[in-house]
Amino acid sequence: MHYNKRKRMYEAMTKMVELGKTPEEIKQLFEINPPKKQRDHTSTGLLVGGIIIVGIAAGLALMAVVLTKMTMLAPAGFLLCLAFAMIVAYYIVRMRQQKNGNTKLE
User: What whole-number distance in Å separates Cα of residue 27 and Cα of residue 33?
Assistant: First the structure.
């Protein structure tokens, strides 16, 4: 469907060029806008991932306390450290984006 739409648009543009329309008139008729810039979702993914892993670690720790299986605290501690590392990475990426002048932060 996307291909057919682009093909029709191309054919219409060639017709307009043949009729002697200027590029400005063609842009106005088709309302051609420049493509939007893709936003980098790396920083947001780090924060969301860190928060989710904190929840998983808290769940494991709670299970360890309720089930009195202290061996489950080791994986919970590991996940908690991983989550905090991801959250710290988020703040580092955010500071670098601000330093580079990127004002659109996720």
Answer: 8
Q: Where are the domains of the chain?
A: 1-33, 42-99
For the beta carbon of residue 73, count every other beta carbon within 10 angstroms. Answer: 16
Determine the Cα–Cα distance for residues 75 and 59; give it in Å rounded to an integer.
11
Measured CA to CA, the distance from residue 105 to residue 99 in angstroms comes to 12
DSSP readout, the chain? -HHHHHHHHHHHHHHHHHHT--HHHHHHHHT--PPPPPPP-HHHHHHHHHHHHHHHHHHHHHHHHHTT-GGGHHHHHHHHHHHHHHHHHHHHHHHHHHHTT-----
**Residue-level pLDDT at 105:** 47
Question: The pTM is what?
Answer: 0.53
Task: Give CA–CA dist 81/53, Å, rounded.
Answer: 9
